Amino acid sequence: MASEEDAMNSQSTETHTEVGEFTSCIHESDKDTKKESELLWRRVKTTTLLTYLESKARIMTVPHLALTSCGIKQSDVEGFIDRTGTPMSSWSKNVNFFDFDCREAETSVGVNSQHGLLDEQDASYMGEMLNRVQTVTDVMECLVKRVLVAELESNNARQKVSLGQEEIKKKSIQIETMSEKLDEMDRFASGTN
């Protein structure tokens, strides 16, 4: 009987040990699964942001959609104005890319808190990604503005050239007319002598 009890106790101890090992194995597996799901979730978020950038870039290739996307409107008085109400004449012709490096973290924190509980690492990662996406978006919008300014300057230059050509034609006609009058006067003067 004692040996049966010892065997049962030994078997019970082994079973407890195996259950403990199994439980710790399950906990480790849960941690690994959680890490993998966090990694996959980050990849989904990154893919979403990159898809947004891709669609934004495609929109920028269509002129009227680019203007709408950038919040640029046609004003009767001032020409084009941007979403802040700044007229085209005040837009900067030079893009300072250092301005785009300075982003505030408030935007990313606000957006991250909307999506539920996120750990600090995820929040900082998403904040960094959002800042980069916003930087690229801002650069694209600046480029659209520069294109508009360049097109306007090009149109103005074409108009000046056209006006110059018209003026040259007028002067040419005046010169021809004066030349004909001089010829007439020369013939008249020759006829009277």
Key attributes of the depicted protein:
2 strands, 193 residues, two-stranded antiparallel sheet, mainly alpha, 77% helix, 3% strand, single chain
Task: Report the span from N to C terminus.
Answer: 163 Å
The SS-based structural class is mainly alpha
Average per-residue pLDDT, rounded, comes to 79
The number of helical runs is 4
Strand order of the largest sheet: 1-2
Query: Any idea what the shape is?
Result: rod-shaped
Poorly predicted runs are 102-117
**From N to C, what is the helix and strand string?**
HHEEHH
Q: Helical content, roughly?
A: over 70%
Structure overview:
This protein is mainly alpha-helical and 193 residues long. The chain has a domain at 52-162. It is built from four helices and two strands; from the N terminus they run ααββαα. The chain has helices spanning 2-60, 63-70, 106-114, 120-192, and strands spanning 73-75, 79-81. It is rod-shaped and about 160 Å long. The protein starts with a helix and ends with a helix. Residues 1-28 are annotated as: Disordered.
Give the arrangement of secondary structure elements:
Layout: H1 2-60, H2 63-70, E1 73-75, E2 79-81, H3 106-114, H4 120-192
Task: Give a quick precis of the structure.
The protein has 193 residues and is mainly alpha-helical.
